Amino acid sequence: MSWTNERVELLKKLWSDGLSASQIAGELGGVTRNAVIGKVHRLGLSGRAKTSNSSAKPRRPRTSTASPGNSPKRAPQQPQSIGATALKADIDQAPVVAVKPNLERLPELVVPISQRASILTLTERTCKWPIGDPATDDFYFCGRQSDAGVPYCAHHCKIAYQPVADRRRERKSIARAS
Hints:
It is built from 5 helices and 2 strands; from the N terminus they run H-H-H-E-E-H-H. It has helices spanning 5-16, 21-28, 33-43, 154-160, 164-177; strands at residues 130-131, 140-141. A hairpin with an 8-residue loop joins strand 1 and strand 2 (140-141). Helix 2 (21-28) packs across helix 3. 10% of the residues are buried. The mean pLDDT is 77. It comes from Roseibium album.
């Protein structure tokens, strides 16, 4: 499809009449909405007349009519304060309970030098518990035998995995003691 002079004139007329790009494309036939928008842009057409269904009507502010079935939503009421007490909160705060975990110290495991592992010697059946500071030369992994599917030996599993029920029970007992 090419833009003939007649089609361009019809486009200008329909555009000034306030038709949408889709409506103009339908009137012209053989052209898409995007082609109409592109041609309007290239022609520099702007000031459009308002169509009857897109004319702006002044809006009236809503009036609050509170009927039993149609009550407006209100924010929950906040405590009112007057005068210099505006910043004072009279809300009783729940006491803050500091949870102190019961860290039973297991005896430190001494890993023989022959069982210590480096990152290069770890396998799926060796304990991957890090010991020491990784930035130092004496850093190593435990390296002891671990069960299949578990990354740590039995000793380090006791440290790494704590049953959820035990932790909850401990928190409740600390809260009751306070």
